[in-house]
Design goal:
Low-confidence stretches: none
Largest sheet: 6 strands, parallel
Distance between the termini: 76 Å
Shape: elongated
Oligomer: single chain
Mean pLDDT: 97
Structural class: alpha/beta
Bound molecules: nicotinamide-adenine-dinucleotide, uridine-5'-diphosphate-glucuronic acid
Helix content: 40-55%
């Protein structure tokens, strides 16, 4: 088949893989190639054991792979053939040098820019898909314009808003697609070309075009606002525990105001994931670099509240279990940063596990998708950690259960059977408020929900 356009995506991760699978599925006349330096990742994208777990993803990949969707490690060849290049490499928080712990590490990003210059033989549109500091496109343009081949690169920002665990659905039915470009003739033409891709399945009213800098900054701001809502309700969960108010009732009562809305108001042990923390840190760093100290402090509090919430959860476990958990077996139900993904990046589970191990508890970690990552996250730590896919085996002989991830399977467990198999007194610390607390209490558990009165059998 003759394809009308060659699309390349550099970076076959949580964003590049699913995004390109859906573009290929919806645009059969385009050839879509996804490249990565990681050979193992590419081999898995070419198998039915995909490198990431995402509901509906395997079916989407299988429908397009080999037809107009290809995964490869041949980066120079891919760049040469491409008309449009999406760059979706990782942009983690910098761990060294200036801005360590705050700024975005743009080394992968810059490397791809140099690769694009080195291997291009014709003009192309370069699409920023990764989340980047505002005004990165300027740096990208400077690198790209240093070519002696008389070819033009138009840089467009098209940030991705998918959430893990619902990526396929988010891509198929996005709230909006954002495309930022220079407001020049070639910039606007490039934005139209990117909009053409999405218009295969996204209604025109949902495709928003802006200037380049607004698109870049909107992505950081969207994540900061979402994380701020979680930190806001988590802050209130601490107050609820002091006052016998119930945080779920507050979420419902407050969220019923249509000006506020109900989503992203579920109290938790804190938000995790690869993006919220890094993107807010990046926003804080940008604000400080412009001398906007108060603005930086304001957003930094969202992170501090998240650290407080995670710390509070662990302290409560220790306090309620009579101030010592040495040698006690604690079953952590869940390790992924949220349900329906195997991703554990920045998961509160990592923090909780490390702290419990420091207190010399024996841990059993149970998660349907994240045990491989959990093993890597906890490798080399002192202490007893076991990994178990079967929740009934995980809780056998345990003193306490700590719910870390809101997987559906945990809601449906037979808690009578579990209670019978546990040490007494048996404790449940529900970091996601997903269990039926009254029922657990009636069975005999001492129950510690988040932001709600605890239910204990102690006098
Ligand atoms: P990821 O780590 O899963 O994937 C990035 C991939 O890029 C890796 O496979 C890596 O090997 C590859 N890579 C790095 N340098 C390369 C190079 N020079 N050439 C070829 N490949 C290279 O990251 P991710 O979660 O997909 O995130 C990518 C970007 O998208 C980040 O900027 C992130 O902030 C943003 N984002 C992520 C999500 C999400 O839910 N994960 C959502 C929206 C936006
Ligand atoms: C988030 C955003 O939702 C996406 O729009 C964005 O594209 C993405 O970051 C990104 O830039 O990477 P993601 O991190 O995959 O997506 O998952 P979320 O659903 O946002 O959950 C993040 C964390 O917040 C999870 O740990 C989740 O459990 C927690 N959370 C979420 C709460 O604690 N309470 C809530 O009410 C909602």
């Amino acid at each position: 088949m003759k394809f009308t356009r060659n699309i390349l995506c550099i970076g076959a991760g949580y964003v590049g893989g699913p995004t390109m699978a859906i573009i290929a599925l919806k645009c059969p006349e385009y050839k879509v190639t996804v490249v990565d330096v990681n050979e193992e990742r590419i081999a898995r994208w070419n198998s039915d054991d995909l490198p990431i777990y995402e509901p509906g993803l395997l079916q989407a990949v299988q429908a397009a792979r080999g037809r107009n969707l290809f995964f490869s490690t041949a980066i120079p060849e891919g760049i040469r053939a491409a008309d449009i290049i999406f760059v979706s490499v990782n942009t983690p928080t910098k761990t060294f040098g200036l801005g360590a712990g705050m700024a975005s590490d743009l080394q992968h990003w810059e490397k791809t820019a140099h690769q694009i210059v080195a291997h291009s033989e014709k003009s192309k549109i370069i699409v920023e898909k990764s989340t980047l500091p505002v005004r990165t496109a300027e740096a990208m343009e400077r690198i790209l314009s240093e070519n002696k081949k008389d070819i033009h690169f138009e840089v467009v920002s098209n940030p991705e808003f998918l959430a893990e665990g619902s990526a396929v659905n988010d891509l198929l039915e996005p709230d909006r697609v954002l495309i930022g470009s220079q407001q020049t003739e070639t910039g606007l033409q490039a934005a139209r070309e990117i909009a053409d891709i999405y218009s295969h399945w996204v209604p025109a009213g949902k495709i928003i075009t802006t200037n380049l800098w607004s698109a870049e900054l909107s992505k950081l701001v969207a994540n900061a606002f979402l994380a701020q809502r979680i930190s806001s309700i988590n802050a209130i969960s601490a107050l609820c525990e002091k006052t016998d108010a119930d945080v779920a009732e507050i979420s419902f009562a407050v969220g019923s105001d249509t000006r506020i809305g109900s989503r992203f108001m579920t109290a938790s042990i804190g938000f995790g994931g690869s993006c919220f923390k890094k993107d807010i840190l990046n926003l804080v760093y940008i604000c400080r670099s412009y001398g906007l100290e108060e603005v930086a402090d304001y957003w930094e509090m969202v992170i501090r509240m998240n650290d407080f919430q995670q710390g509070r959860f662990v302290k409560k476990i220790i306090r309620e279990m009579f101030n010592t958990i040495v040698g006690k077996k604690i079953a952590m139900l869940g390790f992924a940063f949220k349900a329906n993904t195997g991703d554990t990046r920045e998961s509160p589970g990592i923090f909780v596990a490390k702290k419990l191990l420091e207190e010399r508890a024996d841990l059993v970690i149970c998660d349907p998708q994240a045990l491989g990552n959990a093993r890597k996250d906890l490798a080399g730590l002192d202490g007893n950690v076991a990994f178990e896919t079967d929740p009934y085996r995980a809780v056998a002989g345990a003193h306490a259960i700590a719910v870390i991830t809101e997987w559906d399977m945990f809601k449906k467990l037979d808690f009578e059977k579990i209670f019978a198999a546990m040490q007494k007194p048996a404790f449940v610390f529900d970091g996601r408020n997903i269990l039926d607390h009254d029922r657990l209490f009636r069975i005999g558990f001492n129950v510690f929900p988040l932001g709600k009165p605890s239910l204990t059998h102690f006098r």
